[in-house]
Amino acid sequence: MSVVLFEAGDHKVHLFTDLVSGDGIQSNQFFISHGHHSALFDPGGNLTYQPLYNAIAKMTSIRELDYVVATHQDPDIISSLDKWLMYTDAQIVISKLWDRFLPHLMPGYMVEKSEGRIISIPDQGMRLPFGESEIVAVPAHFLHSVGNFHFYDPVSKILFSGDVGASLTDAEHGRPVNNFDRHVYKMQGFHERYMVANRACRLWAAMVRTMDVEMIVPQHGRPFVGRAMINQFLDWFERLQCGVDLMTRHTYSVPPARPRLVSTSAA
Fold first, then answer.
1. Could you give the CA distance from residue 222 to residue 175 in angstroms, rounded to a whole number?
2. So what's the pLDDT on residue 67?
3. What is the model's pTM?
């Protein structure tokens, strides 16, 4: 299903929510078009490639795609990379910490195809030209990847937040959160395990509060729409104890010895 998150003039933002079926992890993919320019965010892997390709081909010329953007390196983010390199002329946008690992995601004959097409984002982020507008890469390091970026569209005022805000157990993908207190339990366990520490959460939330954001859309589950809902989410996230905050000395312990097998054979 494609949901139009924003449309004004020649600028449109699409959310794809149900391209993964079966045992695969649900993930959201995002497509922005701005006049004759277009960008695809976190396209996913083999489970999403063909239906996503077919959907986007109805909207634009696939060959003319400007960017394929990855928040981080996980398989559900960018493992279909070789196909997008093969069938588009897009540049691949990813953290400088992960660009050298990209050849491991593609067959050997495709490595040459990627030369000159990878944009490595420095740790402080960058601004990507996008027609008369731009796409802004903002730091989200250790949330949860060591080299992690979120991407902001200043026209729609949407922040694509990767795994921050994800709700993996949510059946209403793509629908805005309408009751934050009832939504928290769908995020809690995932964020406590996958986010590295409260310090990173606080720094990120403080940065987002300085931005003109009308919608936060994670890679899994439901978006947060409107200033009031976004503030509720930021209030929760900046207080979250997670990752190393929750570790104790029992976290690192050697598994107990296996019980010895007692032979039952006759003497």
1. 6
2. 95
3. 0.88
Buried b (16+ CB within 10 A) or exposed e, 202-229: ebbbeebeeeebebbbbbbbbbbbeeeb
Please count the other Cβ atoms lying within 10 Å of the Cβ belonging to residue 252: 7
CA distance 151 to 134: 10
What would the DSSP string read from start to end of 90-134? PEEEEETTTGGGGGGGS-HHHHGGGTT-EEEEPTT-EEEEETTEE
144: preceding bond cis by omega (within 30 degrees): yes
Residue 253: pLDDT over 70: yes
Pick the CATH number of 2-246 from 3.50.50.60, 2.40.33.20, 3.60.15.10, 3.40.50.2300: 3.60.15.10
Q: Are 67 and 73 in contact (CB under 8 A)?
A: no
What pLDDT, in 10s, does the model give residues 116-164?
Answer: 788 999 999 999 999 999 999 999 999 999 999 999 999 999 999 999 9
Q: Where are the domains of the chain?
A: 2-246
Confidence check: pLDDT of 210 > 90: yes
How far, in Å, CA of 204 to CA of 125, rounded?
Answer: 13
